[in-house]
Amino acid sequence: MSMTHYMELLATNQPWNLILFMAIPVVLAETVAITELFILFTRAFNGTLRLVNRLASIVGGAYFCGVFIWLMWTAVIPLTTGAGWRGPADVIAVGFYLSGIVPLGGLALLDLGLIGKKRNEEGKLKLHACFVAIFLVVAHIAMIFGMLDPAVLGAGQPMDAAMPGMHH
Predict the structure, then answer these.
(1) 40 HSE (CA, 13 A, CB side)
(2) Rounded mean pLDDT, 41-54
(3) What is the DSSP string of 108-140?
(4) pTM
(5) In whole angstroms, what is the distance from residue 105 CA to residue 123 CA?
C-alpha cells in the first residue's frame, strides 16, 4: 500500500509537519467556525468573541498563504514537472488542500476590510460564514482523498488497465 503526497507530508518529520500543515490551519479555521456560530446565534457583532474570530481569520489566511506558496514551490511544481504524482487521488488531495487558500484568504481579506466594504455587519458575517463552509468542504475532501491508497483510483497501473474501455 502506498500513500498520497498529502498523507506523506503529514506523516514525515513527526510531529512538526502535522502541526505546521494540519493542526495550525485547522485549529485557526475551527476557531473561526465555532466563534462564527456563537456570533450568528447571539448577533454579537462586536466584543471579545468577534475579535477572536477576526484575529483567527486574519492569522489563518496569512499563515495558509505562506503554506500555499511554500508547497507550490517545493512540492506541486516539482511533482508536476517531474511526473511524480501518484494518480488521481494524490492530485485531488493536494489540489483540494491547496484550494483552501481561497476561503481562508477570503476570510482574511474580509476581516482586513479589503473586500466586502459595502456590506453591513450582518452581510459581512454571512459572507464570512460562506467562506468558513467552503473551507470545511475543501479540507474534508482533501482529507478523504489524502487518506486513500492511490492504487484504489488506478495509480501505478497502465492507462488501459486504469480506465477499462479506453483504447489509444
Answers:
(1) 15
(2) 90
(3) HHHHTTSS-TTS-HHHHHHHHHHHHHHHHHHHH
(4) 0.87
(5) 18
